[in-house]
Design brief:
Layout lengths: L4 H4 L3 E7 L5 E7 L4 E3 L6 E2 L4 H28 L4 H4 L5 H24 L5 H17 L8 H27 L7 H4 L2 E5 L11 E5 L2 E4 L15 H15 L3 E6 L5 H11 L4 E5 L6 H14 L2 E5 L6 H19 L4 E4 L2 E4 L7 E6 L11 H4 L2 E5 L5 H11 L5 H18 L10 H17 L5 H13 L5 H14 L13 H13 L6 H14 L15 H13 L5 E6 L6 H5 E3 L6 E3 L1 H15 L4 E6 L5 H4 L6
Parallel strand pairs: 8-13, 8-14, 9-10, 10-13, 15-18
Antiparallel strand pairs: 1-2, 2-3, 2-4, 5-6, 6-7, 11-12, 16-17
Helix pairs in contact: 2-4, 4-5, 4-6, 5-6, 6-13, 10-11, 13-14, 13-15, 14-17, 15-16, 18-19, 18-20, 19-20
Length: 628
């Protein structure tokens, strides 16, 4: 069971087992390495029936997080420097304690303003600005990965808290019933003497109320909260209050599914994502929905319009059965003729619609539309996102450099030619800024503008076609005139010589452009988990990755690769399917191979594992990679 704990609890990667029979859990470890030990509650022994000890384990985790959360809230109220006590608690609880403290300070200031104090909101806003300045200083120094992740997540929300405080000051808000404040995500902690029997913490958005669930969700990266994100949170909160779902519509790369996940994180709820596909039937989607409602988790149905119309009609009836039972506060719900227990915290189903998707998608039936509140997510607030991302990456001149980044991508989108592989939207910007943060930490003595310019150049240059090369380099020279010539592309003569040797051993001609292609692929693999190599036939795409693998195999970085032509297999053979008669899952080629590579990696972490899909790229099989 411990081996599959991540499939049950997305935030937990490992259980630390002790005892004579190694069957006692005294610590859980997140997917990012954060450790939460049972210091306030007793360890859990995994004995008896699996469903019984798993129930005990989940209850023990919630009890431990509740106890540690109380300590975090107490530390936040003592007035200690934030970065002194943040690291003493799990990131999830530190963020909850920060939000509780921020909510209390803001509401106290608004109450004082309502009583006639003219400086209450100003003093609180000034305190938020000073606290943020204190928080950002450690990011500019040496921090281990875990602490940096924790601090970056809290700073992301603290910058939004500062912006809210400044806005309330500028608008002259004098009451906590002010809509801008009332629409925020506000957290409260149940104090001693309260008669409330609900959770120790509660989250409020508008008039909607959520008990904080204290599910352990790990310490992953947090998204930037923008005005668009606020509107989505508000719509989701009111939809939950009315026992409805939320439908996010917009082009890809606008943060639709990430916003769903962030809202679930803020209220401590587990969140699952199902990438819908044409091979799914109503029983498959119904099973997923049943699991969500039974466990009290929130779920996001990505690209729900990819489901066939006949399936969508049945799915709308299934969702209606769950929402009706939740609205009636029933303990059970009826689905496909069977009764299932309904969790008291069963909440908001989300689904996303890609407005820029290719033709051929199913139309949403009216019965489905009536169950969801629509939210348009068309254009993300890039200015806020870039500014916050640069700050959390350790850049001091975030405002100045952020403006240059926005101009760079804006001009590229309008001046560069229209190529199918070009992407100048949010995902591309975010990846480049994350890489710039890594370079900033690796070379703290270099100028920030130079590091950012070099990252933008080296990240996108391999994908630029010849006709756009002059435009691309000219934009960089105009935006970064002081550092453009001072930061040339780094050359690794030893590695290029190894590429030349490997190419000749494979009876290939190591021309300069080919060596550069292999070097670019090497650099991209060091920055991303997934790389798409595009180009017409006969342009060395397959030869490039094979040469890079041979180069690494000849050095101290052995590579194991599994290559398949995705067009040689059907979608069912690639990803798997549910057998219609027995309802058993038949695993596809890609999930099985990926699991084998992961198992090999556990045995030998020094070996790199590649899953190569070498063939024609199309939407049919590429979209399924999201869920894989």
């Amino acid at each position: 069971m411990a081996r599959h704990i991540n499939s049950l609890c997305e935030g937990i990667a490992e259980l630390r087992l002790d005892g004579a029979r190694a069957d006692t859990v005294n610590c859980i470890i997140s997917t990012h390495g954060e450790k939460v030990c049972f210091n306030r509650t007793a360890p859990v022994r995994l004995a008896g029936k699996v469903e019984e000890y798993l129930t005990r384990l989940m209850s023990a985790i919630r009890a431990e997080l509740t106890a540690q959360g109380e300590l975090a809230v107490r530390d936040g109220a003592l007035g200690r420097r934030p970065h002194d006590w943040f690291f003493e608690h799990p990131m999830q609880l530190a963020m909850l304690a920060w939000r509780v403290d921020w909510t209390e300070k803001m509401e106290r200031a608004l109450d004082e303003a309502e009583s006639g104090s003219r400086r209450a909101v100003f003093d609180t806003a000034q305190g938020q600005v000073e606290a943020l300045a204190t928080l950002t200083k450690p990011l500019q120094g040496e921090l281990d990965t875990l602490r940096r992740q924790t601090l970056a997540g809290i700073i992301t929300h603290a910058m939004h808290g500062r912006d809210v405080a400044v806005f309330l000051l500028q608008e002259g808000a004098t009451s906590r019933l002010c809509f801008r404040w009332h629409s925020q995500v506000r957290a409260h902690w149940r104090r001693a003497g309260d008669n409330d029997e609900s959770s120790a913490a509660s989250v409020h958005v508008g008039d909607a109320h959520f008990d904080y669930s204290f599910e352990y969700l790990g310490n992953g990266s947090r998204i930037v909260i923008t005005p668009l994100t606020e509107r989505v949170f508000l719509a989701a909160a009111y939809a939950s209050r009315l026992s409805l779902g939320v439908a996010h519509a917009g082009p890809s790369g606008t943060g639709k599914s990430e916003t769903c996940q962030e809202f679930a994180y803020l209220v401590g709820r587990p969140h699952r994502v199902l990438c819908c596909g044409p091979e799914m039937d109503a029983f498959t989607v119904g099973s997923f929905l049943t699991g969500l409602a039974t466990a009290g988790a929130w779920g996001c149905f990505m690209e729900v319009s990819r489901l066939p119309e006949a399936v969508l009609s049945v799915v709308s009836a299934q969702i209606k059965a769950v929402l009706d039972a939740s609205r009636a506060r029933s303990a059970i719900f009826l689905l496909n003729g069977d009764e299932h227990p309904l969790h008291a915290e069963a909440g908001v189903p989300f689904f996303t619609l890609n407005t820029a998707a290719p033709a051929g998608r199913s139309e949403m039936p009216e019965s489905m539309r009536a169950l969801f509140r629509p939210v348009a997510m068309m254009i993300p607030n890039l200015g806020v996102i870039v500014d916050v991302t640069l700050v959390t990456a350790g850049f001091v001149k975030s405002r100045e450099l952020g403006g240059k980044v926005l101009k760079f991508y804006e001009f590229l989108g309008s001046l560069a030619s229209k190529q199918p592989h070009y992407d100048w939207r949010l995902r591309s910007i975010k990846n480049a800024l994350i890489l710039a943060g890594r370079a900033r930490r690796a070379e703290p003595s270099q100028p920030e503008a130079g590091i950012l310019m070099r990252t933008l150049r080296d990240t996108h240059l391999p994908s630029i076609v010849n006709e756009d090369l002059l435009t691309f380099m000219g934009l960089l020279a105009d935006l970064f005139p002081d550092t453009f010539n001072a930061m040339p592309r780094r050359k690794n003569a030893k590695f290029e010589a190894a590429i030349t040797t490997a190419a000749r051993a494979m009876h290939l001609q190591p021309q300069e452009y080919f060596v550069q292609n292999v070097t670019d692929l090497h650099d991209l693999l060091g920055a991303r988990h997934c790389v798409l190599v595009v180009g017409p036939p006969g342009t060395n795409k397959s030869a490039a990755w094979r040469t890079l693998a041979a180069t690494w195999n000849a050095s101290e970085k052995p590579v194991v690769n599994r290559a398949y032509d995705p067009k040689a297999l059907t979608l069912r053979e690639l990803y798997g399917y549910v057998e219609s008669s027995s309802r058993e899952w038949c695993e596809g080629v890609l999930p099985r191979v990926l699991r084998e590579l992961i198992d090999e990696g556990a045995a030998n972490a020094a070996v790199q594992k590649w899953l190569v899909l070498d063939g024609h790229v199309d939407d049919l099989w590429l979209e399924g990679m999201t869920s894989l």
